[in-house]
Amino acid sequence: MKQKQYQDAFIGRNIKEARIAAGLTQEQLAAKLQVSGCDMTRGTLSKIEVGLRHAYAYEIKIFKQVLKIDYDFLFSE
């Protein structure tokens, strides 16, 4: 279980980093995700960024598309 939490923390941190680099607030990113077919609130995004909730595979795919990042970045430590 610790390994999974460890991974979630890195993915969340990387999403936050990409969001900030794109100049987006959590609210703005959540809106872009919703338009792209991912029903995510700002609160859910916040939990993902701090590692309290994991991102599902389909959500990771949409994060990649919306933030224009690659999988290597998302999964990097």
What can you see in these coordinates?
By secondary structure, this protein is mostly helical. Helices cover 69% and strands 0% of the residues. The protein contains 5 helices and no strands. The protein has helices at 2-21, 26-35, 42-49, 57-67, 71-74. α2 (26-35) crosses α3. It starts with a helix and ends with a helix. The model has no long low-confidence stretch (mean pLDDT 92).
What's this model, at a glance?
The chain has 77 residues and is an all-alpha fold. Helix content is 69%, strand content 0%.
Residues in helix, %: 55-70%
How much of the polypeptide forms β-strand, as a percent range?
under 5%
- Mean pLDDT across the residues is 92
Report, as a whole number of angstroms, the end-to-end distance: 18 Å
String of helices and strands: HHHHH
Number of helices: 5
Shape descriptor: globular
Number of strands: 0
Please identify the structural class as seen in this structure: mainly alpha
Q: Layout of helices and strands, plus pairs?
A:
Blueprint: H1 2-21, H2 26-35, H3 42-49, H4 57-67, H5 71-74
Helix pairs in contact: 2-3
Keywords for this structure?
single chain; 69% helix; mainly alpha; 5 helices
